[in-house]
Design brief:
625 residues, single chain, 24 helices, mainly alpha, 5% strand, elongated, Clc chloride channel, 2 domains, 5 strands, 3-stranded mixed sheet, CBS-domain, two-stranded antiparallel sheet
């Protein structure tokens, strides 16, 4: 029996609502997402060392808590070679995406959101592979992008693939997709709690949450973070358990709110972050529209975008007096953000704002041209630099007793909470990345303000407003119309139903199927009690292997974990069960005798009954008007 068939049978042994089922599935997704995060990080560092550092002498600075496979620091940098490497990296990434998986271009998370809402959670199996390589090339050659988009799509892609191979329902596939998203983000940012919430919150523009995914994403995020940490301690020269548990930006950030009066400058900071966020979104999608109009092949556009991003970084480098911190707008930009969080005075207000604006331009050129990368990381850099600049401004010009590093941390959270409409997960993620929870109150205040004022704008175009407007929940909001209608009113009591003995050979079953249009066949024991069921599609998988026709019997084909209904169940219950396992008929059993089959409830007849009730409801409403 094929491996996936064995796993499918094992999973079907759990009750649909049981924790056990999701523990197994989410853990599998978490393991692969954790391994994928490590592969992605190692591949990215390898590209940096081979392509960027060895050729040009430039090595982008990273966050203090990042583990490095190669210990390199920028020495004599050849700016011309930096541009050349970035251009070639953009070309390689663009060609790879264009040739094998166009949906792997851009910032990844939006593609996963679109798949959840509009594509039944389906992501082609090649997408995670292409996304891993293309994003590692983009980031490794200096493209301005983040890691969360690629790793979110990698995790989501495997979750979708596994659900499809196990023949799970569309609803389950969507949950697996989000579990993969959460697992990837939780691992790469060492923020498992935030990863779990991020996957459920990022799907919607309004303050809505995909509550069904929270437990699966929590499990997958914990597992992926553990696998990620375990593998990194084994392969990284500097790896240790202590370093893995160190927050991404180190464990030396211990800021606190000095006075409740600080909420006043923080309110001003929130308004500034909203304005910068609107600018970022407009520049990002404006650049995308301009790039699409270029009369060149699609795979050349990321190369053009990479060269423009390089020119932006080099231009800023000379504009600030050849200060290497200006080159921090390239790659992830976490090195510049680390300085902004720890010692913003070292950079100064002017340079902080220049870095923020430069990061907007460089990220828009890199990703909006079709380059593969995320937008969360760049958003952290932009928000952190703007926040630090405002903290310094109030400190120097108005005499407020502020700690600009705290404003940088709060700015990181507020900025992304506004432009991504994900305030809760962002607050927790930034706290986990910095290891500082003493700023929870002001972070909540600024993030909430940014979320409220940015309602009209979003960085993720594929978000829908609420669950009510998501195609994924199209059948979830018809409860009132079907209220009070029982299965007994609809199901077909079919005396001509063909039953299959559990000892009947596969050869006899095949010949029986040829004589009937029936699609689902109850299997009975010697006492004529139903012990299982199978569909005609289940039998077709054996048709090309005649050697087992006389060996296999009905017991080998049937499933014993029968999803059924009772005549007393309402149609809402029936519709949910139709959706949960994606079948066209459900057996109706006698409530007083669980082995006695009364008939079959067909999905088409149920929907037709619903439509007739809906028409009656609309006519009644029009008569009242």
């Amino acid at each position: 029996m094929p491996l996936f068939r064995k796993i499918e049978n094992f999973i079907n042994g759990f009750d649909f609502r049981s924790t056990g089922k999701w523990f197994v599935l989410s853990s599998l997704v978490g393991v692969v997402a954790g391994v994928g995060a490590v592969l992605f990080q190692v591949l990215g560092q390898f590209v940096v060392f081979i392509a960027l550092f060895t050729v040009s002498g430039f090595a982008p600075a990273e966050a203090d808590g990042e583990l490095s496979l190669f210990h390199v620091t920028s020495s004599e940098i050849s700016l011309g070679l930096v541009t050349l490497v970035m251009g070639l990296g953009g070309l390689a990434s663009g060609w790879l995406v264009w040739r094998f998986a166009p949906e792997a271009g851009g910032h990844g998370t939006d593609a996963a959101i679109d798949s959840f809402h509009n594509k039944r959670g389906v992501i082609r199996s090649r997408v995670p592979i292409v996304k891993t390589i293309a994003s590692a090339i983009t980031l490794g050659t200096g493209g301005s992008a983040g890691r969360e988009g690629p790793i979110a799509q990698i995790g989501a892609g495997f979750g979708s693939y596994l659900a499809s191979r196990l023949n799970l329902s569309d609803r389950d596939r969507r949950i697996m997709l989000t579990a993969g998203m959460g697992a990837g983000v939780g691992a790469i940012f060492r923020a498992p709690l935030a990863g779990a919430l991020f996957a459920g919150e990022i799907l919607y523009k309004d303050a809505d949450l995909e509550s069904d995914v929270i437990v699966p994403t929590a499990i997958s995020s914990i597992v992926s973070y553990s696998v990620y940490g375990l593998l990194l301690t084994l392969i990284m020269p500097s790896g240790s358990d202590a370093e893995i548990f160190t927050p991404l930006f180190g464990d030396n950030l211990h800021y606190r709110l000095m006075s409740f009066a600080e909420l006043i400058p923080m309110t001003v900071m929130a308004l500034a972050l909203v304005l910068v966020g609107i600018l970022y979104i407009n520049v990002f999608y404006g650049t995308h529209r301009l790039m699409e109009r270029l009369p060149v092949a699609p795979y050349f556009r990321p190369a053009i975008g990479a060269v423009l991003a390089s020119a932006t970084g080099i231009g800023l480098y000379f504009a600030v007096g050849k200060d290497p911190v200006a080159l921090g707008i390239l790659s992830t930009g976490y090195g510049a953000l680390q300085t902004a969080v720890e010692n913003p005075d070292q950079i100064g207000i002017k340079v902080l704002l220049i870095i923020a604006v430069g990061k907007i331009v460089a990220t828009s050129c890199t990703i909006s041209s079709g380059g593969s990368g995320g937008v969360f990381g760049p958003s952290m850099v932009i928000g952190g630099c703007v926040g630090a600049a405002i903290g310094l401004w109030f400190n120097h010009l108005f005499g407020f007793e502020t700690d600009p590093g705290a404003y940088a941390i709060i700015g990181m959270a507020g900025f992304f909470a506004g432009i991504a409409h994900a305030p809760i997960s962002t607050i927790i993620m930034v706290s986990e990345m910095t290891g500082d929870y003493q700023l929870l109150l002001p972070t909540m205040w600024v993030s909430t303000l940014c979320f409220l004022f940015c309602r009209r704008w979003t960085l993720y175009e594929k978000q829908v407003k609420t669950r009510l407007e998501s195609p994924a929940h199209r059948g979830d909001f018809i409860v009132d119309v079907l209220e009070g209608i029982k299965v007994a009113d609809v199901y077909r009591k079919d005396p001509q139903l063909t039953y299959i003995r559990e000892s009947m050979s596969l050869d006899e079953i095949v010949h029986t199927l040829a004589k009937t249009h029936q699609q689902y066949f109850p299997v009975i024991d010697s006492d004529r009690r139903v012990v299982g069921i199978f569909s005609a599609d289940d039998v077709r998988s054996y048709l090309y292997d005649e050697t087992i026709w006389h060996l296999a019997v009905a017991r080998d084909v049937m499933i014993t974990n029968i999803v059924s209904v009772l005549p007393t169940d309402d149609l809402n219950t029936a519709l949910r069960r139709f959706t949960s396992i994606n079948v066209d008929e459900l057996p109706v059993f006698d409530p007083e005798d669980s082995g006695k089959l009364l008939g079959m409830l067909r999905r088409k007849e149920t929907i037709a009954f619903y439509n007739s009730r809906l028409i009656q409801h609309k006519l009644a409403m029009s008569d009242e008007d």
